[in-house]
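Cross-check.
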Amino acid sequence: MSFFNRFVAPHTGRGLKLTRGNNMAKTIYPEYQEHIGGLKMSADGKQRFFINIGTVTQSALHHHDYAELSFFIEGTGSESINGVAHRIRPGTASFLLPHHMHKLESDPGRTMSKYRCMFDLPLLFSEYEDPEFSRLVYGIGTTSSSFADFDGDAAERMMATMRQLHEEYAMPDTPGSRHMIRLKISEALLLFVRNATGNDRSPIKDGPEESVKMSPLLQYVHLHYTEKLALEDLSRQFRYSVPHISRSFKEQTGKRFHDYVRQLRIESAITMLLHTNMSVTDIATAVGFDSFRTFARAFRDMKGQTASEYRAMMRDGGSGALHGE
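Predicted model, tokenized:
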């Protein structure tokens, strides 16, 4: 028995199917997964963390309100995050921010083994937040790729970091364990960003220390972007003025607030178009648009065609090869 097979396989999501009438086809919706390794959000607000090594052959389309870092150590297959597919092999890593839509499937006859690390994002950010680190983490999936392929010394270092995280998790009563976990997650994510597929590695310009702590705001946006969300909501929630939040948002993300939210919604819509049979109208509502007209205009602006045209093109084989092949 191999070292990896001695661990319990992780839960894999099953797509939820709802029926609309006896004679109509079932509509497939993405599954929402609430728990981290069986851990519910605690009443005292303590941030959750879980890591294991397990096997997976298939995980249906799902999303959750926590972050997830995976590092694959055996097997091959493919993973899709927000509609972007990537080949999986030993040494591939993927990272999901809250509510990123994703699915996973191994190649026929193969089983994939991976480290699976799940945590509430506030665990990463202490009272003295590093603006650059916040930008890098929340840029994964937008300004940088959701995937990274590790080889050679870089793969060995990432493996060692994940192994140390796993060992630390097994010793919760060790002095400073929570802080060590935070440091090791931070190290793993920085290694991820440096090796991210398609990352142009352009340097981040130095600037003055931001007066607005962006990580709590971005966490809030990622958890609530499918709801009615405005700068005034952030102002009330975090006690900054609307102009100050607006200016800081643009400086730290490179996007205006409304453009950032719109991109999150369209990326979520793309995943539903590709991996569910929900109607375009239902998808528009599900991802947070007030009206179908607003959704249609935003989708065309971003993709250059209607949502129905995009779905038909991709289902007719327009998706091409997986990224990373």
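Residues 4-195 form a domain with the Jelly Rolls fold (CATH 2.60.120.280). Confidence is low (pLDDT under 50) at residues 1-24, 199-211, 319-325. Passed to J.P. for a second look.
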